[in-house]
Amino acid sequence: MQKRKQFKSFYIYIFAAIIVFAIVQFLISGQFMNDFYINTLMVIVINIILAVSLHLVIGITGQFSIGHAGFLAIGAYSAAIITMKLQLPFALSLLVGGIAAAVAGLIIGIPSLRLKGDYLAIATLGFGEIVRITLLNINYVGGASGMLVDNLTTWPWAFWCMVITILVIVNFTNSTHGRACISIRENEIAADAMGINTTYYKVMAFVIGAFFAGVAGGLYSHNFYIISPGSFGFMKSFDILIFVVLGGLGSLSGSVIAAILLSIVSTFLQDYPETRMIIYSLVLILMMIFRPQGLLGTKEITSFFKKGKSSDGGKHDGKQTVA
């Protein structure tokens, strides 16, 4: 019965995704949307992928990482090299970008994920800055001047990459591996005492999150005509972090909603970067005062349509997990 409900929900989500895709594709094909709105749509989709991938690391596993822009940069430059330097297909560039970021996530994850809290945050921040400075000094990819990239990111590519990312993260979260990650988030010492290999699962979540950040990087680099290391600094990691914190730590749908709202705000305030950061700061301060758990907390948006059922991130079928 439970599996039947899961399959029913799966097909409902897929059907809804197809409807949304068809409507937007019709608007684009019929030229009802100009380039500005199309570009805004691409930015929203890319930010959703980034928010969902970081949600797995912070919201589900509880590892405070602020180096996500480093994985975005690795994916962006790897994908750009594949298409612009090697003249290979765009699809392959996205895959290579994701794999390159995942390998980087594995390399940095094994030593750094033994750290906790602020120490982990500092380590991941340092990783992001190392990536940025390294790219600044590589002439092959343009150095500080940046790298010219063809505009190959289209609505179908961006949308279905987003759908695949969400499906993978949702299924991972609902699997035994995801439950192990949630137990680590709730109480790492208790999870370790129960026999869960905490380092293994933290690295696994880190690598999966890095992979999809790399895919987002490939879409990002081919959505604009030029990429430069300055686009992947600390503030970019901070932007992605805000999506997850504002939406609610542990809520995937909350991260998606926050990514949509803040992407729209950021797009319309792109000529006023100082104002944008002031608004971000005010939103976070008000959120910490009046709703510290975020927009949805650990709940998913579907929980509001279910009577008498809880969808907390640390619970499953009304029972507390091993955490």
From TrEMBL:
Cellular location(s):
Cell membrane
Query: What parts of the sequence cross the membrane?
Result: 12-30, 36-58, 65-84, 90-108, 120-142, 154-173, 203-220, 240-265, 277-296
Q: To which species is this protein native?
A: Heyndrickxia camelliae
Which keywords appear in this protein's UniProt record, sorted alphabetically?
Cell membrane, Membrane, Transmembrane, Transmembrane helix
One cellular component GO annotation, for this chain's record?
plasma membrane
Picking any one GO molecular function of the record gives:
branched-chain amino acid transmembrane transporter activity
Q: What is this protein called?
A: Branched-chain amino acid ABC transporter permease
Q: Name one Pfam family in it.
A: BPD_transp_2
Q: Which domain of life is it from?
A: Bacteria
Q: How does it sit in the membrane?
A: Multi-pass membrane protein
